[in-house]
Specification:
The chain has about 675 residues and is α/β, with parallel strands linked by helices. It is built from 19 helices and 28 strands. Strands 8-9-7-10-11-6-12 form a seven-stranded parallel beta sheet, sandwiched between helices. Strands 13-23-22-14-21-20 form a six-stranded parallel beta sheet, with helices on both faces. Bound molecules: adenosine-5'-diphosphate and zinc ion (2 copies).
Length: about 675
Amino acid sequence: MNDRVRLQVVVEAPRHAGLSDTLEYQHPAILPAGTLVRVPLGRREVAGLVWRATSDGTRPTTALRPIAQVLDGLPPMGQAWMALAEFAAGYYQRSLGELALNVLPPEMRRVNGSQLAQRLLRARRASGAQAEPAPAPALPTLTPEQAAAVDAIEASAAVARAAPLLLHGVTGSGKTEVYLRAAERALARGRQVLLLVPEINLTPQLLARVLQRFPARRVVAMHSALTPAQRLRTWLLAHVGDADIVLGTRLAVFVSLPRLGLVVVDEEHDASYKQQEGARYSARDLAVYRAHLERVPVVLGSATPSLETWQHAGSGRYRRLPMAQRIAGATLPRVRVFDMGTLPRAGGQVPPALAPPVLQALRQRLERHEQSLVFLNRRGYAPVLHCLDCGWKSECPHCSAWRVFHKLDRTLRCHHCGASERVPRACPACGNLDIQPIGRGTERLAEQLAQELPGARIARLDADSVRGKGALEVALGAMHAGDVDILVGTQMVTKGHDFRRVTLVAAVNPDSALFSSDFRAGERQFAQLMQAAGRAGRDAGQAADSEMWVQTWHPRHALFAALRAHDYAAYAEQLLAERRAAGLPPFAHLALLRAEARDAAVAQSFLRAAAEVAAAMPEGADVMVYPPVPPAVPRVANIERMQMLIESAARARLQRFLSAWLPQLHVQRSAFKGLARWAIDVDPLGI
Ligand code: ADP
Ligand code: ZN
Ligand code: ZN
């Protein structure tokens, strides 16, 4: 007889550590699956999760090490959560322990049982609902489209296997109100709500609206800017069921929610839902899977859905809930495309930042005391500095990229490796004093606008301008308060803001994406411009006069015709047709094998060897392995990068191939001494 129990525990260990997915330990009694424990591993003690228990008495447990500590102050992780972790680990090709423990708050992996119990107690005490619940806010009357969407979401909550819902609402159609109403219904049923957003900091407005709408509920925000203690606190409140609404970025897709009743993914097309290191998961895709597991409705909201989602909506796998009208009869801005080729070019002079009619439109807004946004997706003063005498350019010594000239802090900064140095006063190569900026970023554009429009209150919004703590809130606050006339910025200005007084948006240089080697560049560009347009004329009183100006050298590109007509569907269908013809996602499934080494030849030979392994495998017949190529910026911080694309017509076949292939690559890796890293990216976003 053997009265001790064998437990299968997952610990945080990457797949190549040579450990199997679960390790066995012994314990005097059965512990439920999902229990958090601490176990010895080598000479360390690490956090673990009980995955399974067997009381199989026929095999002796004496050789097994005992569980060191059971964190029994916490309820175990739920079954659905474990199924999600197992799916994500398998799909994104990580070890179960690495994935499952990595998506827990880091603090949780460090504290012991009594510390955790204390933290939980403190969190619960501190988080009582707001002491004096504010009066319930007056609710706006839903538009017929909003009401239909809310009803459809509610109806799907009653169906066991309802299709995911695509809330396809034009900018300013009131999608947030739909989320809030659907959340209200889920809360009334006693359930928790998971509301995913691309970046919380960028849209503090949304958090404020949720807090205001549900004064008597516990709302927690979960994102990477929280301190470790805050992150643990919010996680614990969600896990024990105290938090009613979790508003979070991609990492929140894994938060434990015992009463989950609704999942919302706002701006589902946003690239920040894809994790770019470690387990490179798509939080949007996992949200859909999680809702399916837990049989709760999932709403993907966007004015410009990803083509993957659009395709699902077209094929009937997802259900589309359209909202084609802006709130209160506001119209979408008139889009005007300016052909840069028509500007007179006096003797090789560079064209001005803004074409005359665009400047004129800005002046008009100033006179009318309306606000404008000027969108240029390049930060800094100028992307390159060069010497007119010897041709020197501000190349980064560590990367295959230029260092960007930042005039305000007088630095040359590499946006890839972060290397920064003071701007040289003379050419470092020849000593010439006349070194000049080439091209233009947001800093220079703001400077030029200030010269052209004296008296205008001009502000800048980009990653540099909001670096300081609280700077972003201040900048957005000034804009909302009307203290800014013209806001110049990168794609940050195009994200979901509800600026009420903007009647003009100008996109200054949107052309680079038209000829990018990344097959998703066109989709991204179109979405970005439609979202930019969506910031103008959101107030019905001013909408009729609102405009968007686009300056381009390629005015006849189909993208601009669709933009003018605000016709997302037309351009999406065209792009889908191109993808179908080229055999690209969503009509094919991709994985990208990346390799990094100081010597590009090492990275390349690793990938070549991996391709040979693939060719020798029976599963290799199901996939197409392309030759290794360098990415757009091959060298970063003195590391050379290479990548190799794997494509399959069927997702399941790609998955089967990867599961068989990767273990062999872990073995093969040791033969490549100079290899720094390698990684697989399933459903990669940037190619
Ligand atoms: P979207 O996310 O679709 O761009 P928002 O949710 O930001 O749009 O809504 C745009 C504006 O309309 C917000 O200021 C919001 O408060 C307001 N709004 C939403 N629904 C209604 C409604 N039914 N009646 C009046 N105003 C509304
Ligand atoms: Zn020089
Ligand atoms: Zn660099």
